[in-house]
Design goal:
mainly alpha, flat, Helix Hairpins, about 0% strand, about 180 residues
Amino acid sequence: MSVSGILIAIMAVLFACGVYAMLERSLTRVLIGFLLLGNAANLLLLIVMGAPGIAPFFGAGDKDSFSDPLPQALTLTAIVITFAVSAFLLALIYRSWQLGQADTVTDDEDDVALRGPEHETEEDALDDEVEVEDADEEITTDFVDMTTSPITVLHHRDLPGIVDDAPTDRKDDGA
């Protein structure tokens, strides 16, 4: 098998594993799948580039002495896009974990209602059997063992010693 054949096989395996991982309900597995897809796309562009050659604009001569710079530019762009979307997915995973202590995506209640009772799955049946142990205690937050949200937004008026000297759009009466 040639080098290109091996790279094509590796790229196909990366694409297959990436798509399989992205179909899971866990956001962490979706992130791993997206990273695998990004690497597979970079490998595809490397294969498209052809045989390794010299720098794109090296010397002056016939067009066979130049390598194609487009796949190199596309690979760089794919790396940047993969990095940006990975950072966004990491933020989503962190926020999901912070709010619900889990990174799995659950079914939307409206979607389940539209499906109707004939499409009820075993997972939905198990969810219906769960009972709240302390029914007298009012649930005030989604955070585990916390009565309030861990994020508190303060205004400068709430903190002593901070003077707000920023310009505003309001006009003073001059008094």
